[in-house]
Amino acid sequence: MNQLVNLKRFAVTYVTVTLALVLLGLALQAGASVSLPSGLGSVLPTMMAAMREGQKRAQAGDPILTNKQAWAVARVMTVVVAVITIATEYVMVQLTPGLSQVMSMMPPMLIVGSMVFFLLVSLVLNRFFLMFGYRSHQPKQAPNSGAE
């Protein structure tokens, strides 16, 4: 599995995009009193990290993944997203006093259901954008001139 994508690079890209969105959001809020859409931070890091892995695979000249391989890689990348998300949430709850109180008032099934939904969306995004990234960096083939 690790030969198919670089999970370390995927994780670094995911975290970098997430941090960039946080900083951009803070700058926009402070400078223009504008906030980024709330869902953007949930989908954009996954999309960009998966697309980058597909692009890197195409640039290396590796063959396109089969459907089965692509879903298997997407599952592993989704586990990476889950670990990063859970670790981030844990740190945020520890560092933000009021957040732990808010979280304790929420029904556990709502938290679990939200996480499952987020991971399912991440799985589909990982699969789609991994292949999209690969296809976007394949060399263009010359059009068939009709002569054989």
Characterization of this structure:
The structure is a single chain. The protein has about 150 residues and is an all-alpha fold. It is about 75% helix and about 0% strand. The chain is built from 5 helices and no strands. It has helices at about 5-30, 40-60, 65-95, 95-105, 110-135. The mean pLDDT is about 90.
Primary descriptors:
76% helix, 5 helices, mainly alpha, globular, 148 residues
Chart the SSEs and their pairings.
Layout: H1 7-32, H2 40-59, H3 67-95, H4 97-105, H5 108-136
Sketch the major β-sheet.
none
Strand composition percent: under 5%
- Compressed to H and E, one letter per element, the order equals HHHHH
Mean pLDDT: 89
Q: Tell me the distance between the termini.
A: 40 Å
Structural class: mainly alpha
